[in-house]
Amino acid sequence: QQSGRRYNLFLKRRLRIDKRHQSKDSIFFRDGVRRIDFVLSYVDDFNKEFEKKLERRKEFESNLQKAGLELETEDKKESEDGKIFFVKIHAPWEVLITYAEVLNIKVPIKENDIPCTVENPLDCMLFPLRLPEQVMHPEPDYFTAPFSKDKQELYLINDQSTFFSPSMRNRIVNYILTRCPYGTEEGKKKFGIKRLLNNGTYTAAYPLHDCQYWKKANDPNCDNERYTLYMEWARFLRFYKEQPLDLIRKYYGEKIGIYFAWLGFYTEMLFLAAVVGLICFLYGLFTMDENMSSKEICDPAIGGEIIMCPLCDQECEYWRLNTTCESSQYSHLFDNVATLFFAIFMGIWVTLFLEFWKRRQARLKYEWDLVDFEEEQQQLQLRPEYEAKCTQKKRNPVTQEMEPYLPLTSQAVRFCISGTTVLFWVSLIIASMIAVIVYRLAVYAAFASLMENAQSLQPISGLLTPQLATSVTASCLNFVIIMILNFFYERIAIWITDMEIPRTHMEYENRLTMKMFLFQFVNYYSSCFYVAFFKGKFVGYPGAYTYMFNRWRNEECDPAGCLIELTTQLTIVMAGKQIWGNIQEAFVPWICNWWGRRKARNNPENLYSRWEQDHDLQTFGALGLFYEYLEMVIQFGFITLFVASFPLAPLLALMNNILEIRVDSWKLTTQYRRPVAAKAHSIGVWQEILNGMAILSVVTNAFIVAFTSDMIPRLVYYYAYYENEDSPMSGYINNSLSVFQISDFPDRNKPKENPENFVICRW
């Protein structure tokens, strides 16, 4: 019986192999002529919704055929797991030219015959960084014009099957799919593939990759662009090479192309900032031993004789200033004269970065035929969800056409709900930040008492002060809270943006971007703002300390200053976010794909078709690029808003971005289904966000230098209060500390013990 089953399985597989004479990398119908432009998949789940889903599919596919598309269905018996049906879609020439005119797609009319006279004198030096010409420029440069069915003789139509690129074809088919009706339910007309995916009628809808990424296809008609992108762009060993932006744009569309253009330009500009930041850090490192403040703190005759007031009430003891010797030396790495120079430099750098990017963007806009894209966007990208939910119509005063619209009262109610929700979540972040501050205040006394009494901590007590221990643990706790809040808010932001029913795709993305960025801004930067501008500023003084909620005594800065704590906070949050982000981006989709393909690896090659391979990949999603921008803009904030406290931040960002480009390209090429091509003429609302952050960074860095660092007090002492002309900074530490009579301590603040009978303490 077992041998009989094996024989039947063999016959079944043999039948499938014989039936499918095409290569497993085939991107054509069974006739080998018609190209597969899109694939829909579904599963027959026999539940109470089965009949309804079957009816929807039948109606939807019938309407697709009425629109001119050609369909070919692969039975579930042909699939690798025997459960999934695949509907392959082909757009014939008549459909392509009809919708190319509707979408105002620009096509070639003549090859560009203007010679390129610009020569870079550094080309010979930059040759190792260059990619082959056929990779950088996969097709000639053309003069183009919007397509018109009535003027086909004007265009360079050499072959109808290749005249429209695969990315243009999948964009046209996706346009039809998002607007194709599938019936009437509850008295409302229903349409669009997105709704069918949401209600489970179809499980996936995607265009196909043109081949496997690790080898070329056997089909001579295949361009093998995915293979080229992987070999020349998506491998980490190519990190030093330029990006093939024209090929990225041709394969994935302008929207993804312009993201990688911006990311590459940002990374190039970071190189200069990283070099200057490293020089400033090395200056602090080499002058550490010459720092007079650290010398006086570490000197047993000066710092060893200065008795400091207790750091907490009753439990903490008096302590000598020289116990903070090591932390004061390390604070000089970031709090020195070079800090001021670097803050000024970064203010200039951020301006140059934004202005030079505008030039680069304008050049891409011209080269990629996106100059008049704004009008296209407004006219053509009306969201299907908007058309479906806005049943009322009114005449457009400009076009004189009837258009759907959302009544003003409905808009007002939706915006009120949206604003209230955003305000609630921002308040939740502030509440969580206050909770972290309470944690800092509550555990500070415990750390101070523990470190004074624990003999095992004596070897590191000079470096690990109670303030630093509290700051490190609070920063880690804050990072965990940030990640948890992010997880929930991402879903809330999408829900409330959907509820607002934005009119166009651009409007939808802009609204979602502003909500997400506002939340992320408060979430990531609030703790840094607290350490930079509030911590240690409202402490009071011995005998009259200030308390939070009349219970916890406000915490003081580290004796070496708050700047070293800001550096710690910035390093933990920034580095933690980058490490966690790369793990999420690279390992999670790889593990999911590996697990999903574990059965298919044992099958004969002919049984695992191109559409099944792509089906088993992860979905990039409409918001995939949004999260990439968000990640980089948050990083941009870290290296501009607080860079005066951490000159190595641009270097960390540079190393992360070199990895980020290759991780993003690798996952897009190997781990995700091919995204639907989309057009974009700029980075959108992110440009305005970057401009706002650039202005804010000038203010924050000026405030850090003025209030958080000891730069101003030192300069005032150097020029106005010095006591020794040969060494103007000697005596600064003694001058900067006030004197308090211990006998004036109230019982609430007075330490339980004073074994050495100190009379005064400093603060």
UniProtKB/TrEMBL annotation:
GO MF assignments: chloride channel activity; protein dimerization activity
Assigned GO CC terms: plasma membrane
Compartment list: Cell membrane; Membrane
Keywords tagged on the record: Cell membrane, Coiled coil, Glycoprotein, Membrane, Transmembrane, Transmembrane helix
Membrane-spanning residues: 259-286, 337-357, 422-447, 467-489, 516-533, 633-654
Cross-referenced InterPro entries: Anoct_dimer, Anoctamin, Anoctamin_TM
Segments forming a coiled coil: 43-77
Protein's UniProt name: Anoctamin
Gene that encodes the chain: Ano5
